[in-house]
Write a structure and sequence with these properties.
Layout lengths: L1 H34 L4 E14 L2 E14 L3 E21 L2 E22 L3 E20 L4 E24 L2 E15 L8 E11 H16 L5 H10 L1
Antiparallel strand pairs: 1-2, 1-8, 2-3, 3-4, 4-5, 5-6, 6-7, 7-8
Length: 236
């Protein structure tokens, strides 16, 4: 009876040790499969730009959606718009104020070569080709009356340098400094060549889904606790 008890105890611990080792190996295997680099990673960026027209700063808002290829090349399609008044066109005559309103709306093909990428910082060279429509309204501001409207197509190129700070793997704050060059402009009086800056929120959808999968994986294999795992996944 004593021998049977000892044999049973040995088999119990041996089986437990084997299961634990097998469980650890499977966890490592599943983790590697979850975090491995993908060829295509979905991307979204919400953008706020400042375009300089002479000494005036004109804000433009928009977004782009696309993919990051092989961790090196970002390719997206964007949409942007702007509504503002041109200060250099403002004047007063006989106690009446006049001005010119501008509405700009365009789409773009955006590419960006990522030449340096670390955990918290990535650097890139963005190149964008945009095409859209400009609409100008000369207005009697005092009487709130539009005097003249004219519209025209435009095509331009944006290029510059970018830096993205990533406090979380899936969420980054992206800044761009660049130059805008007009290639075609139907409204000749409006020369939009000049500097621009951009600050936007960059979301890496693949990194977000990967973090969620890793959280669920640790929960399934009973690694740590939910709060610790969530903090580690968000900050590591």
């Amino acid at each position: 009876m004593k021998k049977i008890y000892l044999l049973s105890t040995f088999l119990f611990f041996a089986f437990g040790s084997y299961s634990q080792i097998n469980n650890e190996e499977q966890f490592i295997k599943d983790s590697i499969e979850t975090v491995k680099i993908k060829l295509i990673r979905p991307q979204i960026k919400f953008d706020n730009r400042i375009n300089f027209y002479g000494s005036q700063a004109l804000p433009i808002t928009g977004f782009d959606v696309g993919v990051l290829l092989a961790e090196k090349l970002r390719v997206t399609l964007g949409y942007y718009n702007m509504n503002n008044s041109l200060k250099e066109k403002e004047f007063a005559k006989n106690d009446t104020a006049y001005g010119t309103l501008i509405h700009l709306e365009y789409g773009s093909i955006n590419t960006e070569l990522m030449y340096k990428d670390t955990r918290f910082l990535s650097l890139g060279l963005p190149l964008e080709i945009g095409a859209g429509m400009n609409t100008f309204r000369d207005k009697n501001i005092t009487a709130d009356r539009v005097l003249k409207t004219r519209s025209g197509a435009l095509i331009f190129v944006n290029f510059g340098i970018s830096a993205t700070f990533k406090p979380m793997r899936f969420l980054g704050l992206k800044g761009i400094v660049g130059y805008r060059k007009m290639a075609y402009n139907q409204v000749k009086e409006f020369n939009f060549d000049g500097l621009f800056t951009s600050i936007g929120l960059n979301v890496d959808l693949h990194a977000l889904t990967t973090q969620i999968k890793m959280f669920n994986l640790k929960k399934r294999y009973h690694r740590g606790n939910n709060i610790t795992n969530a903090v580690d996944i968000l900050t590591n």
